Amino acid sequence: MLAQLLDLLLPFGRHNPGIHKWAMSTVVPYVRKGLQFRAGTSPAYSLIEFEKLPDHQAVDFLLCPADSRAQPRENIDRDLRSIIGPWVYDTDRWDSSSEDGESKVFCPGWHQVCEWLLSQATLSWPTAVQAIERWSGPEDVEFVHGIALDLPAAHKYYLKQTYATTVLACVYTVQDTTLESLRRIHSILMNLRVYLGLDGGAMSLEQTMKALPDLSFTDMSMFHNDRVATYMRNDLLGRNNPLTRPSEDATNLSLALTRSAYILTLFGSPSSLRRVGDLIFLHDERDQKSEISKLLRTIAAQASKENDDFLLKAREFLLWLRDWGNGTAGKPNAGAATAGALGMLSYSLARNLYDDGGPVRLPVEVVQDSVYDSALSAFDNATNPNRSRGGLKRCDEIIHALPKTVGLSLPGTRRIMALLKATHALSDYRLVLKQGEPFSPVVLRVHSDPIFIIEKVLEQNPRAYTRLQEFLEMGMNMVRAGLLSYRKLDPSTILTTDSELNLAVDIAERRITAMCIEAALKEDDFETAYSYVASRLSMQSPEDSDASPWPVVDEWSWKAALQAGQYIRTERSQQPTHLGTASGNLEIRHLEQRIECLATALRVAPTSQLQEILKSFRRCEEQLDSAIKEEAANELAWGEEARVDNLPGAFDQVNVEQQYPVRNMTASAAAQQTEEAPMSLFDLSRATARAAQRNFTAIPSLQSIRRGVDANNNEHEGESLSRIRKRDQLREAATGTLVSGVGWLIGANVGQNKKETG
After folding, report:
1. CA distances (Å), 121 to each of 77, 166, 273, 447, in order?
2. SS3 for 537-561, per residue?
3. Would you list the DSSP string of 33-56?
4. Helix or strand (DSSP H, E) at 97
5. d(CA 255, CA 208)
6. pLDDT tens per residue, range 154-197
7. The three-state (H, E, C) secondary structure of 560-598, written as one string
8. Who wins on pLDDT, 145 or 551?
9. Could you give the angle at which helices 108-123 and 153-173 cross, rounded to 10 degrees?
10. Which residues contact residue 380 at a Cβ distance below 8 angstroms, ignoring those fewer than 6 apart?
11. Domain named Sec39: which ranges (predicted)?
12. What is the pLDDT of residues 37-57, one digit of tens each?
């Protein structure tokens, strides 16, 4: 019945314009929609009811699927062409208005069609994209038997502009991030430019990206508004939306976003146009850097080690992504550094591009920063502090990859080299900062107090304190790497960079020395601790720094010296390996060393701490005096015990000292025993002197000397300078006897002595 209705009306339409318009714009859409229903199924509305429907209900009826089970809808372009097209051509469904002397037209029904198409882009993007691909717009209308309707120019212009707006709105609404969707969106935009009379073409997305076109914009100021990101989500069909207003700039922007999304998706970061637009218009630098880092990781995973073509192409894409080929689009700030860092994935490629005079498009400073960022990224991702393995090895290779552009004399290079040295030095020790978590290099770089890590090394490695010089070099490298040597240090108090470095180095040395002293005392190695105090701390003073006055209170040196001065020897204390010129009494030697440590503490300590140190100093001094007196008493007691007079059977002032052998021993045996008894040279001299003193009267020479002295005593009373006392004569005679008796043992010249005496 519906198929025959048109045949009945067509003859009358040729003679009556009203019937002709009604048949083309109302009956034709209704009949074609009704024919889509299955046999036995009637449309929801009759022709009369359909004619009276409001525009939005009529559009829903005309575009709803006749069979809800038919998914997806493959012929939506046919419905737009043969059903919606004729229905919109009824001028009775249009509204006219005049603003500022300019007449404007509006079609509520057509606006509802645009809203429906936009909703399909969100719910089922293939449906919307297919409709746009296969339908050429409102001018593409299918009437009956060559009989058509026409619209005024203003109406046609309105349809053309609103359709272009709808296409752009659908492009921003599609959330699919596959390469297929991006290819089809790019094709739609290229056709839209042709539709608007702009330059377009049939080039595919891949063909376009090979050429990397320069997208020059005539006016980008409209896209730098803070509300642009909001326009991508709200009021997409509005007349004042700069993103969807049909123009060359709007289509260029959408093409640039599509190609940018293609690059991101191609390298493993699937993105839609809206996602790329957020990266650009929200100006979130952190989000941009995160996206760039993700790109670099993916590119590194895909890169071929044998061929650099992939990396070269990726670099070109990322350079284009930065400014869309002309440097005016304000693309992500990390784009330049990204392209430089990409070269670090292949050292030979990096040298060809930046070190050997290649076609460098980046400033030298950007390349240097990129190298440093890549090196530090490898450092942060390292798990082994050994410089010859893993991430630290890669960091070292990166920093040496461009010797001409990134020389070893640059401050940034020196800092990273010092960081590598300090980290590698830690690889020789066991180090666990958190239980169950081994030390990783990034901890050193982000730690608020890197010198504190050395204290942990000393705690976890026995006798590590003996490597003081190694730890001092480690602290020096930490300072040169730009790490803090003291968390309370205020850089504002330092005038110049040199003074800041000197201060940081001095602080590190003092802290590390104090740490080693405390570690030695904990392991009862007082001798090593004392040597550090005597050789290191005693040479320091609170004014060693170049900065004047000293901006940091040295709270480490005096504490370490005081702790060493308060140390008391125990059974576990390590014994000294040599005494040198010190006392042979270990207790006295230890007290003397403690006093030296306390004296050093007094010299380097602040005034507020002197009272406490003085108390320890006095106590130690009293202990030393007591020990010295005790040793003197012991020596005196031993001397008394060693006297011959105190021996059993000895008698004072015996004329002739006789030794009697044991009764049951023969005389020859006793003499042999006496000769074989061991006696040192000094014992022999002492025994001879004692025997000579007791037997002066038995020596004939002494008697003659005595008589001579008595006879000439009166003659020499006036000569005071030549007078020789009797006691001196006796001592001289005894000495001569000793020399003549045992002098040959020590090589004494007896004749010369006698001559000089005469």
Report:
1. 14, 10, 13, 50
2. HHHCCCCCCCCCCCCCCCCCHHHHH
3. HHTTSPTT---SS-HHHHHHS-HH
4. strand 95-99
5. 11
6. 999 999 999 999 999 999 999 999 999 999 999 999 999 999 99
7. HHHHHHCCCCCCCCCCCCCCCCCCCCHHHHHHHHHHHHH
8. 145
9. 20
10. 391, 441, 442, 445
11. 2-638
12. 665 567 788 888 988 899 999
Backbone angles phi, psi at 102, to 5 degrees: -115, 125
Per-residue model confidence as pLDDT tens digits over 110-149: 999 999 999 999 998 999 999 999 999 999 998 877 677 8
Among 393, 425, 396, residue whose Cα is nearest residue 408? 396
Partners of 437 in beta bridges:
434
- How far apart are the C-alpha atoms of 562 and 616, rounded to whole Å? 8
- The answer to whether residue 630 scores a pLDDT higher than 80 is yes
SS (H, E, C) 226-266: CCHHHHCCCCCCCCCCCCCCCCHHHHHHHHHHHHHHHHHHH
- Residues facing 147 on adjacent strands: 144
> Does an H or E element contain 273, and which?
helix 273-281
Verify cis geometry, omega within 30 degrees of 0, for the bond prior to 450: no
* Beta-strand runs (E) in 625-672: none
Count of helix runs (H) and strand runs (E) in the chain: 35, 2
Report the pLDDT value the prediction gives residue 101, as an integer from 0 to 100: 54
The pair of structure tokens assigned to 517 is 């002293």
Extract long-range pairs of 690-695: CB within 8 Å, 24+ residues apart.
Answer: 690/644, 691/657, 692/734, 692/737, 692/738, 693/734, 694/653, 694/654, 694/655, 694/657, 695/655, 695/656, 695/657
| Neighbour-count burial of 286, counting CB atoms closer than 10 A to its CB (0-12 exposed, 13-18 middle, 19+ buried) | exposed
CB within 8 Å of 277: residues ≥ 6 apart? 172, 228, 229, 232, 257
**CA 503 – CA 486 distance, rounded (Å):** 10
Q: Retrieve residue 471's tokens.
A: 């730890």
Nearest to 558 by CA among 618, 605, 597, 603: 605
Tokens at residue 52, please?
């009276």
What's the CA gap between 9 and 220, in Å, rounded?
55
Task: Say how many Å lie between the first and final Cα of the chain, rounded.
Answer: 171
**Positive or negative, the Cα torsion across 112, 113, 115, 119?**
positive
Q: Closest Cα to residue 54, out of 108, 118, 106?
A: 108
456, 433 Cβ separation under 8 angstroms: yes
Check residue 94 and report its DSSP letter: -
Amino acid at 46: S
Q: What count of other Cβ atoms lies within 10 Å of the Cβ of residue 129?
A: 23
CA distances 71 to 41, 80, 129, Å, are 19, 17, 15
What is the distance between the alpha carbons of residues 204 and 188, in angstroms, rounded to a whole number?
A: 10
Residue 578 structure tokens: 């040599």
The number of residues in the chain equals 758
- Taking each helix axis from N to C end, the angle separating 125-134 and 108-123, rounded to the nearest 10 degrees, works out to 130
> Domains of the chain by range and CATH?
447-638 (1.25.40), 699-707+725-758 (no CATH)
- Pull the structure tokens for residue 157: 């212009």
Tell me the two tokens of residue 401: 């990859």
How far CA 648 is from CA of 652, 689, 745, 755, in Å, comes to: 12, 21, 31, 43
DSSP letter for 174, please: -
